[in-house]
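note to self — DONT lose this again. spent like an hour looking for the file last time. sequence + predicted structure for the chain T wanted, 113 res
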Amino acid sequence: MKEIKAIIQPFMLQHVIDALKQIPDMPGVTVSEVKGFGRGRAENTDKSVTAWGTSVVPKIKLETVVADTMADKVVHTIQQHAHTGNIGDGKIFVYPVSQVVKIRTDESGEAAL
């Protein structure tokens, strides 16, 4: 199993979510509003806000855990549908997951997805 985390532009969220929903057996996605900066340091942009004494820009973080066989498809889908070609499009991170347990049913492994 793989955990996929993606940081994307807020205005691309609906486009990415709509595309992910089209993937058969897509288990689901957690969406969080986050703030941060990249190499551009969030300076000299009209979207930056000051938080904790520094300039940051609002972003969206998507998180999901999928079967190994789905990981490349999910990454490609996010990349394709979050792309604008502009600075700040975001990043995608992929991590191995050793175990998942579904609290309600006590299922584990891929069955818990």
